[in-house]
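The pair is set out directly below:
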Amino acid sequence: MFPRLCTALLFLFLIQTTKRCYIVFIDFLMEAHVANRINLILVVGLCLASALACNKFTELVKNASNSTDTKSTEKTKLPSAEFSLEGKEWKFYDIKGTDISIEMPGEPIDRSPRPEQLPPSYKEVFNAMHVSAVDDRGLSIAASQLDPTGKRKFTIKELADTSMMAMKKQLPDLKYELEVVSESKAKYNGTFTKNGKEYDVRGCCLYKKTDPLRVWAIITYFDKTNGDARTAAQRAIDGVKFAGGTDRCN
């Protein structure tokens, strides 16, 4: 079953990420297969987290490089290479297909895979997967929901470690800590360096164990020197709401 699962996940991965990113993920799958230490949830979760991270980094670098030249033949003012709160219109967005309502400084982009892109074995563990994100010049905010079928039990640490493991595979200098608040809640706290810039990682993972079962994750990262980006990330974390959930991300 594992080779078929890998093939299906690789197909999903190819259509969502860059060549550099999926090479990293293939290496990880091979290592995991040899060690025989990975289960279905980690494979699916790592694929998702890696795809998001790669897409966000690619867009981040592209925006930054396109904004460094302050002169043009038409003397058009280019946007700043850094995130700014100036002119941002904050709104609460109900993330499509989820129980998540989150305040963001812009409309999130739906990055959820289509049902036909998911391997058959996935449906044994999850009924659905939804992901939406905002990326804006040094600030990224991602909200995701997995709907477990209940056939597999998880620990909050196992779930929370998944996305950090994927990021660390692409960012070897990523250092993070998980604050396990309870059996259903963990907080992310990390740092990494990308293209000479230092970034902070903040967020949470919540596991709703009552019907309907839910796994919610909010992951933000921002330029460490950008106060506006830090403020925006914290505002999103503080204001997120989970319908049917009694816990909060902050």
